[in-house]
Design brief:
The structure holds 2 protein chains of 2 kinds.
Chain A lengths: L2 H4 L27 H12 L4 E4 L6 E2 L5 E2 L4 E2 L3 E3 L3 E10 L12 E8 L6 E5 L7 H7 L5 E6 L10 E5 L2
Antiparallel strand pairs in A: 1-2, 1-5, 3-4, 6-7, 6-9, 7-8, 9-10
Chain B lengths: L3 E8 L11 H16 L8 E5 L26 E4 L5 H14 L5 E9 L6 H6 L14 H16 L3 H15 L13 H5 L3 E4 L1 E2 L8 E10 H7 L4 E10 L20 H14 L4 H4 L2 E4 L4 H10 L8 H6 L11 E2 L4 H4 L3 H16 L13 E8 L4 E8 L7
Parallel strand pairs in B: 2-3, 2-4, 9-10, 9-11
Antiparallel strand pairs in B: 1-7, 1-8, 4-7, 5-6, 8-12, 11-12
Helix pairs in contact in B: 2-13, 5-10
Classes of the chains: A alpha+beta, B alpha/beta.
């Protein structure tokens, strides 16, 4: 340390309170969804639930995907799947997560539709969720459901949801 | 491949938030602790692996750039690893490969996290889902693991009280670990009284948002001999990635089940095969397994073959897996359920096993531990890492 530096030494500052930097990331994106996802969305506008089948293992991938991740082959035929299916797993969400603009409570689930080999994410509507114990007597793995389409489809995956079929 | 050892580990005391340091300063704190533990300095480090989960968690893009100086990497090879929640252990595996390949003798693996600074974490985590089919739904780490918990409970008959027992065990363990974040013991009734977040998960089934740093030093066998310090040998590593689609993990065509942790079982088996572990229940003394929620620990115990499928919760209720019990002790540190600094949580798993098998785990020490398992999970139960560590290079028996 030079003598000029030592003559400048002062007492360390006493922080009255912690210092913070606050920020919000507000970034805009416009993502192309591609021909296959786009085809599925067009199907929704037409009131159809579309998957694609793998020419090698014959699995119907739903919602439609352009390739089979097991056989590493392009899927070929477009396949219409049924509006009936069963609940594979679900949760009833009671918490409102900051930044996620969905009113709780709601049921988030994966349903295997008849004619599909993979399950799709969605909401189950029309069940009283006030009490989880009561609600889960009706909603369970294996419960039959049916698809309900929106009256005003927007070409989004949320154009349809599920209701209990029994 | 050369023999590789963990020769140093450092972790800060994990808390909700730190206002006394910046993020890089926190990283430096963990790195310095690990170097001190190994008895070396930054100058001795030949390459650095940076353990850092998605940028948005710390709110600085390309965030590893911010920390080059904090880990002394100017003029040295440097790479960042990101496999989400699995990051910390994947980073240690990358460091292992640096040394095992013969390219380096001393590698520092460092990182930190300040999860509570992200004020809308679940919304941020939702951004990892597919833009066309899944992003519009409130999928996040809580709801995705609630789906898994519901499916597991339905498949095997486990209850919310069974899940609560995991929290009770881990909080008791964490009370013995001065570095853990949530250290207050709780009862089953305490857990059951917490508010429902995403059925069947309640608040006390979930990990906290933790702040802190951790690092390990990996060295070659030749260098370890020169150091003359305690070491834990990396005996086996395993990794396995799984389909992004949770909907492919259910139904008759599924190869893996979202109720279980099948691909983690594959990763663990790969590490067992390398290490020569043939009977995990008998040969693994201590397991530090990544389980951020109570429900996750149950199927990870099964993936590790420390219990048959669907039996972990009845065994836990009978007192197995707890400190002082016979057989493998699971998460003596209190685990991820009590401390989750996401980017380094997997790294802490390896570090805790290092402390255990070298006999330096303090009040949470598993008696006579010589072989341990560390594991981590990232993405939507999608990236898996596993590591077997031992205090010797002899055959594991």
């Amino acid at each position: 340390m030079s003598s000029s530096t030592s003559s400048r030494i002062v007492p360390a500052p006493v922080n009255a309170e912690p210092a913070f930097f606050e920020q919000t990331w507000d970034l805009q994106y416009r993502h192309a969804l591609g021909e296959t996802v786009g085809g599925f969305m067009q199907g929704l506008r037409d009131g159809q639930l579309l998957g694609k089948s793998c020419p090698s293992c014959s699995r119907v991938l739903f919602p439609a995907r352009s390739f089979c991740d097991r056989c590493h082959e392009a899927t070929t035929d477009w396949v219409s799947v049924d509006t009936s299916g069963t609940v594979e797993m679900f949760t009833i969400v009671y918490e409102r997560f900051p930044g996620m603009l969905v009113d709780a409570p709601y049921v988030l689930c994966y349903v295997l539709l008849d004619g599909a080999d993979t399950a799709v994410c969605g909401y189950i509507r029309g069940v009283d969720l006030t009490d989880a114990k009561e609600a889960t007597k009706r909603i369970r793995t294996g419960a039959p459901v049916r698809v309900v389409f929106s009256d005003a489809p927007q070409g989004k995956v949320t154009d349809f949801w599920f209701e209990l079929a029994d | 491949m050369r023999n590789v050892a963990i020769a140093g580990f450092g972790q800060s005391h994990f808390v909700k938030s730190r206002t006394d340091v910046t993020f890089p300063e926190l990283v430096r704190e963990g790195a310095t602790l690990a170097l001190d533990d190994a008895g070396i300095t930054m100058a001795d480090v030949q390459a650095v692996v940076f353990s850092m989960a998605p940028d948005a968690l710390i709110g600085v893009g390309h965030g590893e750039r911010w920390c080059v100086e904090a880990v002394g990497a100017q003029g040295k090879p440097f790479m960042r690893i990101n496999t989400g929640g699995a990051t910390g252990l994947t980073a240690v595996q990358a460091g292992y490969m640096h040394v095992a390949s013969g390219l380096f003798d001393v590698v520092l693996v460092a990182g930190a996290d300040r999860v509570s600074e992200q004020l809308s974490a679940q919304s941020m985590l939702n951004k990892m889902w597919d833009t066309g089919y899944e992003r519009l739904y409130p999928l996040n780490t809580i709801t995705m693991l609630a789906l898994s918990a519901q499916r597991y409970n339905d498949k095997y008959g486990a209850t919310e009280e069974d899940m609560a027992l995991v929290t009770v065990k881990n909080r008791r363990h964490a009370s013995l670990n001065p570095y853990a974040h949530l250290r207050t013991p709780v009862t089953v009734d305490d857990v059951m009284a917490t508010r429902m977040i995403s059925w069947p998960l309640k608040l006390a089934d979930l990990c906290p948002s933790s702040t802190g740093a951790a690092s390990v030093v990996l060295v070659s066998e030749e260098y370890a001999k020169k150091l003359n310090t305690r070491v834990a040998w990396v005996r086996g590593i395993g990794q396995c990635a799984e389909t992004i689609w949770m909907g492919d993990r259910v139904g008759p065509a599924a190869l893996q089940d979202h109720a279980d942790a099948d691909s983690l079982a594959t990763a663990m088996q790969r590490s067992y095969d390398q290490a020569g572990v043939t009977n995990p229940r008998e040969q693994i003394d201590v397991a530090e397994i990544y389980a951020p929620f109570s429900s996750v620990e149950l199927h990870v115990i099964e993936a590790a073959q420390l219990s048959p499928l669907g039996e972990s919760f009845t065994r836990m209720a009978a007192g197995e897996f707890a400190l002082g019990s016979e057989g493998t002790v699971v998460n003596p540190s209190g685990g991820t359920l009590c401390t989750n600094p996401i980017a380094v949580t997997g790294l802490v798993r390896a570090g805790e096993v290092y402390l255990q098998v070298t006999g330096h785990a303090g009040d949470r020490q598993v008696q006579d531990a010589s072989v341990g398992l560390a594991s981590s999970i990232g993405g939507d139960h999608q990236f898996y890492a596993s590591m077997v560590l031992a205090n010797h290079l002899e055959e594991i028996s």
